[in-house]
Input
Amino acid sequence: MPYLLNTEADIAEMLARIGAASIDDLFAPIPSELRLQRPLAIPPGMDEITLTEHMSTLARKNQSASDAVCFLGGGAYDHFVPSVVDVIASRSENYTAYTPYQAEASQGTLQCVFEYQTLMCQLAGMDVANASLYEGGSAVAEAVLMALSFTGRTGEVLIAESVHPEYRLTLETYLANLNCKVRTLPTPDGVLNPDDVAKAVNDQTVAVVAQSPNFFGHLEEMEAIGVQAKKAGALFIASFDPVSMGILKRPGDYGADIAVAEGQGLGVPLGFGGPYLGILACKKEFLRKIPGRLVGQTTDRNGVRSWVLTLQAHEQHIARNRATSNICTNQSLLALRATVHLTALGPQGLKETAELCLQKSHYAASELCKIPGVSMMSATPFFKEFTIRVGGDAKEVLKRLRAEGYHAGLATGQWYPNRKDCITIAVTEKRTREEIDGLAAKLASVLKA
Amino acid sequence: MPYLLNTEADIAEMLARIGAASIDDLFAPIPSELRLQRPLAIPPGMDEITLTEHMSTLARKNQSASDAVCFLGGGAYDHFVPSVVDVIASRSENYTAYTPYQAEASQGTLQCVFEYQTLMCQLAGMDVANASLYEGGSAVAEAVLMALSFTGRTGEVLIAESVHPEYRLTLETYLANLNCKVRTLPTPDGVLNPDDVAKAVNDQTVAVVAQSPNFFGHLEEMEAIGVQAKKAGALFIASFDPVSMGILKRPGDYGADIAVAEGQGLGVPLGFGGPYLGILACKKEFLRKIPGRLVGQTTDRNGVRSWVLTLQAHEQHIARNRATSNICTNQSLLALRATVHLTALGPQGLKETAELCLQKSHYAASELCKIPGVSMMSATPFFKEFTIRVGGDAKEVLKRLRAEGYHAGLATGQWYPNRKDCITIAVTEKRTREEIDGLAAKLASVLKA
Amino acid sequence: MNNPQSTELIFELSHKGRRCHRLPASDVPMQTVVLPGYQTASAPPPLPEVGEIDLIRHFTNLSTRNMCIDTHFYPLGSCTMKYNPKRHERLAGLPGFANLHPLQDDDTIQGMLELLFGMQEYLIEISGLPAVSLQPAAGAQGELAALFVAAAYFRDKGQTHRRKVLVPDSAHGTNPASAALAGFEAVTIKSGSDGLVDLNDLKTKLGDDTGVFMITNPNTLGLFEKNIKTIAEMVHGAGGLIYLDGANMNAILGITRPGDFGADMQHYNVHKTFTGPHGGGGPGSGPITVRDFLAPYLPAPIVRRDGDRYFLDNDMPKSIGRVRSFFGTIGILFRGYCYVRTLGRDGLRAASEHAVLNANYLRARVAEGYDVPHPGPCMHEFVASARSLMKGKKVRAMDVCKRLLDFGYHAPTVYFPLVVPEALMMEPTETESRETLDAFADTLLAIRNEDPEMLKSAPHTHIVSRPDEVKAAKEPILRWQE
Amino acid sequence: MNNPQSTELIFELSHKGRRCHRLPASDVPMQTVVLPGYQTASAPPPLPEVGEIDLIRHFTNLSTRNMCIDTHFYPLGSCTMKYNPKRHERLAGLPGFANLHPLQDDDTIQGMLELLFGMQEYLIEISGLPAVSLQPAAGAQGELAALFVAAAYFRDKGQTHRRKVLVPDSAHGTNPASAALAGFEAVTIKSGSDGLVDLNDLKTKLGDDTGVFMITNPNTLGLFEKNIKTIAEMVHGAGGLIYLDGANMNAILGITRPGDFGADMQHYNVHKTFTGPHGGGGPGSGPITVRDFLAPYLPAPIVRRDGDRYFLDNDMPKSIGRVRSFFGTIGILFRGYCYVRTLGRDGLRAASEHAVLNANYLRARVAEGYDVPHPGPCMHEFVASARSLMKGKKVRAMDVCKRLLDFGYHAPTVYFPLVVPEALMMEPTETESRETLDAFADTLLAIRNEDPEMLKSAPHTHIVSRPDEVKAAKEPILRWQE
Ligand SMILES: Cc1ncc(COP(=O)(O)O)c(C=O)c1O
Ligand SMILES: Cc1ncc(COP(=O)(O)O)c(C=O)c1O
Output
């Protein structure tokens, strides 16, 4: 049997030592009427050669971002992952270790997480960051839970309609059984109007949540939104794009209390949606409300600088039902990827990446908008993603473009039923002018047909 | 500049410490009239994103064994490489180290080579093996040089025409300037006739070289050939296929003095021909004639078992012009791959691999020979490779099969002009019945057309 | 091997002007993009500046400061530190999987959906519960999602008064934490001296307000709750649901099924049972399976088959919604799929058999010198106690753990579950050999007789020893600062 | 971190019946293949039997017993231990390259041939010699191939009396060994006290029998042979050829070219200059470039271009033949190509400039406490001497080396070249930072003042210390045996 080491001879000796007659005897505590009396209805096993062939066959049934030019975004982007990221993440010592409970046997992981926490603070302009959350959606929910706990309020959580629809849905699911309502603030212009926030807040408002760049790719007036939130004593929670930090103002700098993000753009492959990385960073006043794990610096008994899991008193295994969250396994390996990725990029690399995204997406937008019938959905500024109107059923247009070898964008109407003619298009630093021109040419001919 | 660390500021300080005004000053020893006065005519550099795109474009211009079904052999085979082999070989500690000159800093490499040497002895049935040679062809040449030195004879080296043509050519190149002639013994029946050896040897014959399975895939009468060699006091050098050792008799067991092999089948990717692995093992009386590096067991100053490079007195850096060979860099990483590969297979895995090769190749041979006009070139036994006659120009037939998605075999006539109607076909454990049947069907229709 | 190179904090290695990753020049006509000034930063974040060799040396050297399965025996109880097959890592890199965008059209991801559909089916079959969601990101999120499902079900049935979630005192901390997070009130159920749920205590706490009983079976002491059928009847009788914390599924694959022993819902820890791997603390994957009547409430989407075609079904009006964006932790589900296909029906059962065999063998060896409070046979793990060492030599379980590190063994889980004093929880898994178990047991036994000071000051061979946790928590330093 | 697990010899871990790699059942109708009994073995070879976790732990733990570039500064002179870019490893894995069979038809390998053609062109340009063969498997085989070429050329010209190959006493051992192997007689040329070829000695040894002068430039002392033009004129005047051992090309990329300073032939060590990597002792790649009149003798095949199409040219009637099967060490040539394309014309030159800068800086630092016998500036490396330590404290160069290991530095090349007593040959390469050089130099200087016993018994922090080489050679144990 694959991966088993003990042979029949070993088993016999081991059973003798245990004092059991058979392996079956060891299962005596399981009442026999509860035992499965048949083999599992699962296919027989496969050797590595057969498995490799099987998985390759499945892989060939997919048309990946390597097979078609990828302009898809919506929270997951085809950014380049430098080879150094894979190299470090695939070290046995990193991916086959457990959570660093034994500090002496885990200084590598612990130091990396400490560096990760620091990088996230630097990236978001915040004081403190946790060791990671699952992904961008539950990160929004966890931030709101922090706000609930911190403010002690029981009023509404206000969230812009332009926040990623799946993040909003996640938030609603998380809050469905708690004493707090989620209210979605419409964004008919494609961005949230700060005046609408001013109108919606009151002295029981828990938090205001906005995302910039938002789901359509456009930039929100974060500073102004934050001002309105704070006027009401609500927390301002910002969902941001880590890659955009190369040129955009940081959440900490525009007044966010808690910054959350999907970290996929930081060295994580697309991988059909996961594992990704939930980033959470905040101002220091919220430290004791932070969900999940934290690594802290200390010294060992010889005075050597070292790292440990810390502030565990608020974690589930100590605080149990009073814990700040239930998170145990988090996204350590992804946090490591982000750490290596940001280290590889450095400030200049992050800036240049962001500038390329900016330049290329704006070139794409202007080329596409030259096509008759195509226009921008919103005139507001954008970073690497934007939404166009194509004047007809976007889904149909996208289907035709797929046949031409383009994952051309998202049918915005899937999530926004009144935007069925819209396509949201992401352009990363990997996209070339040739690919953009190709897309424009194909879209023009599809729309003409 | 890529990979450079010192900034302009560093450079200035370093130059100051050196006492030079500029980097250019450091090149003062190079007479200025010898300096290149223009930039190299080499394209400007590329970042990783651009390089990745460039290399992917080149890769797409190839039709690899992943794109077409591969029945090619001729000394390089599409055997399966278990994932554990890649994992170990890609550890930084293995591939970014140098030759283990500092034993204390290289016990990992040294122990692996020691294990490799042992495995090669086990595989070939020999007493001693070296730390590796470049590949199968120069391994034959090195074995003959050993024989020259050991026998002190100056007569002929006899080599079967059925030995890999490129190995024979390599041998001839190596001996061209030495006092020794290479004579090729014809193999009109596809295998060497031991009687022909009996007739060709004399008391100055240095060595007899044969290969089994031979270039056509067929098995030689190695034991009988060896007997004839020995009768004349010549050494018997056997070139073998490591994978075949799962079922075939070992060189040491059929009387070879020196066994050499191409080790590619032991965990080395096809990689268009290199790096591969030259295996050399022999009986202990030839120990002092072994070319290249050897690792030996010893104890350290605390009595701990440890490993070192040994018998270096015969190596080039000590013996210089009296060295047994000029080899310095060898194929350490490939020896490691072979070590891991054979460990992964174990005796049972090697046996089953060999049996699958045997079964599948014989199935292929019998299916192909059902096609009108197709017949075996030789009725002698074979292992995983065999040669058929197709009644017409093999090159043309192969070209048509390529268009159908098959690397169907080698045009034997490239190396044996009187066999222009022959195709040499290799069938490894990876080939499925479906692929074999597909080949048979396509060959049938190509021959009918 | 002494190795001080490049292990300062990466920020301390920073050197102005150094670079690693470089970007191409823009190939599109320069647009003088005018982003409003208030949107832009004056400078990029103050990330470290290092070269590629600095980066590689730093992180490579750091990695060597970890113990891991590939280098050490790692008998961490409740974590199922089994071997992580290398073939999974290779196959996960196939571009046809690794480069799939999560929002691609179903037509372009048929291979992926086929795989996920298969995984759904296998998880259903193994648990004996007929509906599944692969969405939860880890075990804890599986618990949460299932409790959301239960809450939605109760709401639908007009039973919003079922506000209590019962949790044994031996349960993992995520159970009560999830209960609270899902808006329930967590109530603790005592364990009897036999380590099993105390039926009397359960009885007194069951009632009209009972929502869910979260049970771990085999439980965290490594014992099978042999009264599970009775428990289920009691809970169901009170109108509650049974939730099975499936962290310990490694003991019972193909042997007994939660759906068959009374569970209404369960989560899997794919990163444990189906050899994730663990990644130094994640990612995980915590799919849930549930009974038919709970299926409508599962998070969406779910993969369904229509003839030869697979599709993502979002059309689930009663669904609780989502607990995360996108489909789930594909990377871990993918490896779990590879694992299930490699082992197959017989291999899965054999894995559990060997896991239980190894645990019982190690238990027998450890019992030569340590208290093992509960009678055997155990399942895939067991809990020993260092209390005798505590009494005599004032050596604590943690001291034993630290000393084990010196001998090249990762420590067992310590001080958990809470019901055993000086607990040492050991789960050897099925992928270890008898030789390894013996060598480990011999070490554990030998340690007992060492000078207590040797243990109290251990480890002696690691880069650090006993970092001060109190100090870390008192004056928390959670980031580097200049 | 103490780590005794699974590092016994793999044979000692063997356990009957254990398996790692498993094979599928045969899917073809069973053929009762009758191989003659005398061809078959009664049993497979007695290979070790271990499980996958045994294998992984064994080899992973063994690997941690190596120093390497990715974890340590490795200033091994003459070896050019520069950083090995990770992108090369990733790209080399592209199936479109990794899965190419060496005997595929040219039509199916156009991308590969385009790459190799490019590499040919770049090597020609860098050396200033117009013809190239990528075939040789390493530097030493490049030497051999070039000497075969020379022999064939002389034979063709009827000059078979040119039987002597002149080699400076500072030359690498492969030079005289290659000469002997190619049927020449090696003659040693003395170095002057300035470390350069002694022109007088050369003059006396030149003559009608001179075949080839093998010169390393920069030489193994890290010095540029500034009289190279004169030397070339002398040798050419005597009818001989100049062979340039290109192991030290890292100093002169784009700065001076062997073809321009008089060489007729040279080899490259792609695994050094173009960052191979080294693989713990190989593979290498040793292409040679030669002057036009030697081109016909090069090993075949060579990649040529015909319009847009590339092909392998085997039609070389005067070729020496082959020095190996198949095309060459593609894996290393591939990485070399990636490297040349990444650096580009400016990057290559900058690499040499920084290599020379770093060497001179380190030289200045080391000279603070060690003899550096030859005047600077040096090129990419330099040779220091521990002879003052030897005289005073009886500390040898090897002791210094061993002690360096304790501080996490790989040792320099020691006792080579032979012309410097107690030689410590240091090549920092361009990919190291000034900080690293300073830290290394500080350590080297500090070591000098340590208690001599500390050095003589070093290393103290490694798994072994001073394995007995004499014993190893006296009673050689070259394989494990039961
Ligand atoms: C018994 C038990 N339940 C639940 C969990 C939580 O699972 P996860 O860490 O995947 O969130 C764990 C993990 O440690 C566990 O051991
Ligand atoms: C100066 C010099 N020449 C030749 C060689 C031989 O090269 P290779 O090891 O690639 O055969 C070396 C390698 O160490 C060298 O340093």
Chain D has 15 helices and twelve strands.
